[in-house]
């Protein structure tokens, strides 16, 4: 029975991972050691299966060296400190990580097994030991359009993203909810007044939102009643880092011999934990819409093609309906007037599941 170490399991992504692993009874297949950077010596969580009773030191290199697999959701700072130190000791175990810092390393594979399982298996056979979760919007895009990518039908794709607060972290989700409460408290009397007009209410909200009263520690500007057209650091050619990841990570995940052009405009919106994306893509050949839908639907068991009508779209293609599920609905599929090879689509996915925790869980199961 392998010894598995867990770091960062109390955070948001880590908590989702723990819940999924308990749902699938994954802990029955190995011995667990829970590690902490700040709670060393306290009781470990109670789970099914064999485990250490107390939290261990996540910075203890000797202890980490005794583990067969380490799965971490602790973040890039921890990975940047511990990973190179651990490898320098000669540790040959498997490192599974949700953080972004190691993704583009030559000795690391970005994991999304419904899309790149063959490449993952080949990498394991070739001795690769480092497996990293991908960027959330990239993973969700590939899950939704995997049927077209797998057939090498996409010449280029442009994604307009509508990204949830959860992508910034738990503090950001809390900040958005606090902003909602602050705005409501500002106009609560207006809402019950028979004389206040909606323009009075809107004016009050807008004026309040432009003051320093709203909590904006994470996003620097209000997210409630707003959108933020910038995610990540500036890179080059006007791109942000989040937009740069689209092409870089897509091609690494797919292990393409010829790069597929992927570009995007990434925007933060007031959704809690589901990212949405509007795609415009150019196919390499003219294919009928029915065949496109069949290719997408048959690619994996989680993608779900939604008929392009109002009722189905409103019922199935929104963040609220998808939140907390593994489903990847894709709809609004149609050919654009610009060309028969140009396709539009809209997809939604849970940023914390397929966008973060689920690929890690499934990678761990493969290595047992």
Automatic annotation (TrEMBL):
Enzyme type, top EC level? oxidoreductase
Binding of phosphate: at which residues? 103, 245
Determine if Oxidoreductase is one of this entry's keywords. yes
Supply the name of the protein.
Aspartate-semialdehyde dehydrogenase
SUPFAM superfamilies attached to this UniProt entry: Glyceraldehyde-3-phosphate dehydrogenase-like, C-terminal domain, NAD(P)-binding Rossmann-fold domains
Write out the GO MF terms.
aspartate-semialdehyde dehydrogenase activity; NAD binding; NADP binding; protein dimerization activity
Q: Does the keyword ATP-binding apply?
A: no
